[in-house]
Amino acid sequence: MLNKKMNKTEKIVSFINTNVFFNEFTFSRNEFTTPDGKSELQLADNVVWLDDIFFIYQIKERNIEAEGSEIKWFEKKVLKKAVKQIKGTLEYFNDYKNITITNERGQQLNVSKADSTIAKKIIVYNPTKTFFEEKRFLKFHRSRTIGLIHLFHSEDYDGICRFLITPSEIDEYLSFRESLYEKHEQKLNSLPEQYVLGHFLESTDTEKINLDYLENLQTLLHNESEFDVSFIADLFQNRIAKIGTSDDYYFIIKEIAKLDRAELKEFKHRFKLSLDKSEEKKFTIPYRMTSVRTKCGFVFIPLEYSKSNVWQISLLNLTYAHKYEQKINKCIGMIVSHNSKEKLYDINWSYVENDWSYNEELEKLLKESNPFRKASLKKTNKYYFET
Fold first, then answer.
1. Residue 88: its pLDDT value, please?
2. What is the CATH number of the domain that holds 51?
3. Which residues pair with residue 151 across a beta bridge?
4. pLDDT given at position 242
5. Are residues 241 and 137 in the same domain?
6. DSSP states of 307-359 as a string?
7. Contact at 8 Å (CB) between 35 and 97?
8. What is the pLDDT at residue 243?
9. d(Cα 89, Cα 116) in Å, to the nearest integer?
10. Using CA atoms, how far apart are residues 208 and 201, in angstroms rounded to an integer?
């Protein structure tokens, strides 16, 4: 039975990915049994899968006591063995319709449903401190069969995830990195990873290299508290109004994880407003938002505690109403009431997904008595810099 023990670098990458991509979408225990039950195989060292976000990682760590050439280790373990292992993982996705592995939440999922054609291939390596700069600056290995494979020194990967701390940002960054490399391969291989990150933070225009972008890492405003919603994740599992399936928790977490930091800021603002308003014990019009990018709506409903017995019908009706009015296929609802005696918030969630279609009765109700604030399109910035 396969039971590979993780090395230090694998543990670090797993920890980083869990914090960035949530436990639900990170896999580091990647042994699976073939459908015929005859073989046990292993995917890449780490896998992240969140709908259209699909990353495959191979991780290589050099023993600090190892003898021999650092360059030869890099060429053998990183550019040959790790590349071969990534190719093997992609072949598994082509060969097997059932690849069931366990995520960091302890849930088993069939990841073969992931689209391997959009996979980002990533090698994270940890050499000794004497590693040559010219090799560290290499951004990619180009394979004739599977295309570009990202190369990251472990310190650089850690640094990226300290600045880009949402799944959508990491995905966007990797796509940008590929585009920039295709236009400036030689120049980019002479620059540190910090340049690519500084460029991305200010502009996704890949036409020119501008060394001034290096300064952006020093002037970026760290406003993580404005969009950090990690404290919300643990509220979900036991506080969801089940609507037809037992997977609503997973779908809710998934849609929140897809939001970028600007959208998460708006999400957190409305979430906290709803908590505050629920303490006032008076009627408040629900708050809401829709991500134009992910096409998912969110409605936040403060409810008077004296009316908490009708929370379920209120939650479902308003979730459906927001979904219908915004002409979208997915919507998440959250309703909260405050028990002042016990000093506790009672929070429940709903998830609705089905194709939008015209509803004459609902159309009339919304025209006669719309329960929402007026919606408007708002452009938000993701990154801010000191001036």
1. 96
2. 3.40.91
3. 123
4. 46
5. no
6. GGGGHHHHHHHHHHHHHHHTT-SEEEEEEEEEETTTTEEEEEEEEEE------
7. yes
8. 45
9. 9
10. 15
- Domain residues for the domain of 171 are 8-220
Going across the sheet that includes 296-302, the strands are 287-291, 296-302, 330-339, 344-353
Q: Which tokens go with 254?
A: 């998934």
Of residues 150, 143, 44, the one with CA closest to residue 89: 44
Determine, yes or no, domain membership for 387. Answer: no
Reported in sequence order, the residue ranges of 51-98 that DSSP labels E, i.e. its strands, are 53-61
What does DSSP say about strands 46-50 and 40-42: parallel, antiparallel, or unpaired? unpaired
Q: Is residue 376 part of a domain?
A: no
pLDDT for position 235:
61
Using CA atoms, how far apart are residues 213 and 223, in angstroms rounded to an integer? Answer: 20
Closest CA to 289 of 314, 261, 317, 268: 268
**3-class state of residue 33 by DSSP:** strand
Residue at 384 is within a domain:
no
The whole-number pLDDT of residue 245 equals: 53
Q: Enumerate residue ranges in the chain where pLDDT < 50.
A: 1-2, 238, 242-244
205 and 232 fall within a common domain: no
Distance CA 170, CA 203 (A): 15
Which residue, chain included where needed, has tokens 């969110």? 298
Q: What is the C-alpha to C-alpha distance for residues 142 and 124, in angstroms, rounded to an integer?
A: 15
209-217 long-range contacts (CB < 8 A, ≥24 apart) are 209/184, 216/385, 217/163
Partners of 100 in the β-ladder: 110
Q: How many angstroms separate the CA atoms of 282 and 303, rounded?
A: 8
The helix (H) or strand (E) run that includes residue 212 is none
Residues 84 and 161 placed together within one structural domain of the fold: yes
Total-model pTM: 0.87
> Strand 53-61 and strand 330-339: pairing?
unpaired
- Position 244 scores a pLDDT of 43
- Rounded Cα distance between 164 and 337, Å, is 34
Phi, psi of 117 (to 5 degrees): -75, -15
Q: Counting every residue, how long is the chain?
A: 387
